[in-house]
Structures are given as structure tokens and as C-alpha cells.
Amino acid sequence: MFQLTMRLSAVCLLYWLQLSLLMSALRGLDFKYHGEEEMVNYLRLLNKKYPNMTKLYSIGKSVQGRELWVLAIGKHVASPVPLIPNVRYIGNIHGNEVVGRELLLHLAEHYLTMYSTNSTIQTFLDSTNIHLLPCMNPDGFHISKPNYCDGIQGRNNSNNFDLNRNFPDSNNPRPPPIQPETAAVIRWVHSTHFVLSANLHGGAMVVNYPLDVFPGDIYSTRSSPSPDDDVFVHLSLVFSRSHANMYKGNHCDDHFVNGITNGAEWYPVLGGMQDFVYKVASGYEVLIEISCCKYPRPSELPKLWIYNKDALINFMMTVHIGVKGIIYGESVQNSSGVPLKGATVSIKGRDIPFYTTSRGEYYKLLLPGNYVLMVSHPLYESYSTFVKVQSYGVTRKDILLSLKSNRSEHTSSTPRRQGAANSTISTVNTFDTANSSSPASPLFHVLTFTLVVVLLF
Ligand SMILES: [Zn+2]
After folding, report:
1. b/e code 96-111 from CB counts within 10 Å (16+ = b)
2. Which residue from 54, 346, 375, 388 has the least number of CB within 10 angstroms?
3. Does the bond joining 4 to the residue before it have cis omega, within 30 degrees of 0?
């Protein structure tokens, strides 16, 4: 009798556990702040549950030895494919600005649970690898005060350095020592080419885009447009206009036209991540302030998720604009050339060189129009060609460079496989290709509204 009772109890316990797990799965991620261990366990859970769509890895450790975990999501994250772009969100770079940390966990859950039923999400994750670092400053988070909207406790890392003032910056006359968290991100962006990225903050509501410093006048608050200012304005507007109310611009006692600002025009920042990524790592990065309160009550989180969800998703979709391709170098062993690492790719009139990856890839985000693409490499003949960027879809342009010693074949540097990839991802870009020379046009609103509707259902 005793044994029977024990068996029945064990069965009941097992049943209850299974039911709890099922209810938990149905309920999804709780809207609360997840501590270090809870956050890591959740990332592990997603990785275990979706092994073919995720990759969990650490980029290094904080000063106090906490791992900096990244969850990558996408059909190709396990074995990267050329010309599938990497994009990236970083949260909690300031330890007491915690909303981004939680929203990135919800974003991961959303992507993975919606993949099989939402064709927009599916197309995006089939054509993009998204990497999420929910917390860049775990030591700062550890000592931050819950429910404190302002203040600086926990903002810096445990050596008391502001990590968003800690990146190499040629404008900085007194650069601080690079911190372990910063060094980890620097190694990361050099080992993985991120085409588009953003770091998330709290204390304001605005998208802040490069440049963060006016060269030669580093402490002034004057606009410092980058060579790709039109692109950055477009990227920023995609976020602010997809957000529930950021575009209105009047939040947290600030006013920003359309909810966006040039970085230096707001206030200058030396050693910020976004300028470093743009100038050094051939990527387009912005800084996004997503809540007036840095550490709001947990009850605020559901609303903040709803306000930011479409903006977070739509922003990353803009990676599929402009022109991309592979630069090949002529080779005596291979008549069709070999992918060329470190070739310089630039657009005429835009004085910012981008460099090809180890697979010869390049990505230039551009608004619709005609451009001159210029390619150079110390060992090869330089080459220029016209590129037409369409109003939707990304243009594919591969180029073969001739060896300098073989001038007779210079004219063989003709674009190859042009347009071959357009059909692959044009369906994604159907939604995010508003003509950004007039981003507030009715077409833009219609497309944005269409995307919101698609995502909601
Ligand atoms: Zn911040």
C-alpha cells in the first residue's frame, strides 16, 4: 500500500511538473527583471529549444568575471553563408539602464516563437543573422538600484569607467584604458562583420546617430553629419516612426524633431561605440534611448515591449537596402578570381572607406538612386562602376579586380552575377524601402503601417 501511494505521488508530481512546464511555455517569458543567472538560463533554454535556429556564445568576461553572453538567431547562424548579413543589438551597456536588457530577451523569444507562423519574421531570419547581447555591463547591473529612474549607481563598469566613452577615438586627446567589456566588443566586431547595429539606453526617448563629435571642435554641441547622413537619418526614422510614440519628439522634458538627433548636436561623446563601429568596423550603428526612466518598475515592462517591438524589428530589416556583393581578386590559379579580404569599398562623394570581409563581402546601405562604387586594393587595379539602387530590394554587385602586374586584363574587371541575389531577399525589403529622401511621405506611412499589421497578425 505504501509503495502504491509512493508511486501515485511520484506520478502526480511528474504530471504536475509537466503541466507547470507547459503552462510556463504557453505563458512565455515573464515581464520582470531577470537577474544574471535567470537571464543566462533563459538564453540557454532558447538555445536548447531551438538548436537549429540559435547559437549561444560568450564574447568575453566583465572585470568581475561575468560572461558576456550572446544569443545569435537565424537560419544560418550555425554555418554562416556569404552575403547573409549579421546585425546586432547590445543592451545594458550602462548597468543602470535596464529596459533594453529585458526587451532583448523578449525580442529573442518573439523571433523564435513567431518563426514558423509569421512569414515576415521567417523571411528575415532566413536572410539575416541577428546577434543579441542583452547585457554588456553585468557588474554595473549587479549594483544598480531597482526603480531608480535617474542617478548613476551601476552606470559604469566595476573599474568605474563609462563603457560608452571607452572605445578608441582619434578625436580623444586623453583616451581612457580600454576595459575588458570594451575589449570584448572590439574583438567581436573585428571577428564578425556587423552591417547594422544599435546599442540600447535609458533616460531619454530618441534615436541618436553618428557622428558624436564635431572633428576639430570636440566639445561643441553642433551637428556633425557623417558622409552617410542621409542613410543614418533614414535608419533612425524607421525606428522612431515604428515606435508607438517616439517620433512625436516630446518626451522626458526633451524635444527632438521626429524623435531623432545627430549625436554631436545633442551632446558630444568621445569614445562612443557608434562612431567607432562606423569609422573602424565598416558598419552602421546608432544609439537608441528607449525609456525616460532608466530602471522603471517591472509593471512598466509590458507597455515598453509593446511600444518598442515593431521598432526593434523594423529597424533591423533595413539592413536589406543599398548594394552588396563580393570583391574578387584575379588569380593565376583561379581564372574567376578569389574572394579578396581588406579591399576598400567606397561610394563617390562619401568619404568613408569600408573594408571587405575575409570572404570578400561588402555591404553599403544606400537610399534609392544612382551611385559610383569605387574599389581598391594595394595589389590590384582600382575599379569604379555605376550602381543603381532600386526603391526596394538590395542590389547585388560583384567585382573582379585585375592584378596590377597584368594591366592587359584590367577591362575584365566587370561586374559579375549582378542581380543574382535580388530575388532572395526582395520579399523582406518590400516593407522597409520607403524613399528616405522623403521619409515622412504617405508611401512611408502606408508601408510602415502594412508592416505593423503583418507583424501583429
Ligand atoms: Zn546610457
Report:
1. bbbbbbbbbbbbbebb
2. 388
3. no
pTM of the model: 0.85
| 3 state SS of 275 | helix
Spatial distance between the Cα atoms of 424 and 324, rounded to a whole number of angstroms: 13
Cα(125) to ligand 1 centroid in Å equals: 28
Residue 444 clears pLDDT 80, i.e. is over it: no
pLDDT digits (tens, 9 = 90+) for 142-160: 999 999 999 999 999 999 9
pLDDT tens column, 403-433: 987 543 332 333 333 333 222 222 222 222 2
Give residue for cell 551601476. Answer: 154
Mean pLDDT of 434-448: 29
Catalytic residue among 265, 289, 330, 381: 289
Q: How far is the CA of 122 from the centre of ligand 1 (A)?
A: 32
CA angle (10, 12, 15) in 5-degree steps: 110
Q: Identify residues whose C-beta is under 5 A from ligand 1, the ion.
A: 94, 97, 201
181 is catalytic: no
Identify the band that residue 164 occupies on the pLDDT scale cut at 50, 70 and 90: very high
User: Parallel, antiparallel, or unpaired: how do β-strands 284-291 and 194-201 relate?
Assistant: parallel
Three-class DSSP labels, 300-347: HHHHHHHHHHHHHHHHHHHHHCCEEEEEEECCCCCCCCEECCCCEEEE
* Nearest-angstrom CA–CA distance, 97 and 271: 19
pLDDT band at 455 (very low <50, low <70, confident <90, very high): very low
How would residue 334 be classed by pLDDT, with cut points 50, 70 and 90?
A: confident
User: CA 454: distance to chain centroid?
Assistant: 22
| Run of H or E including 262 | strand 260-262
Show the cell assigned to 368: 534609392
Cα 386 to averaged position of ligand 1 atoms, centre (Å)? 41
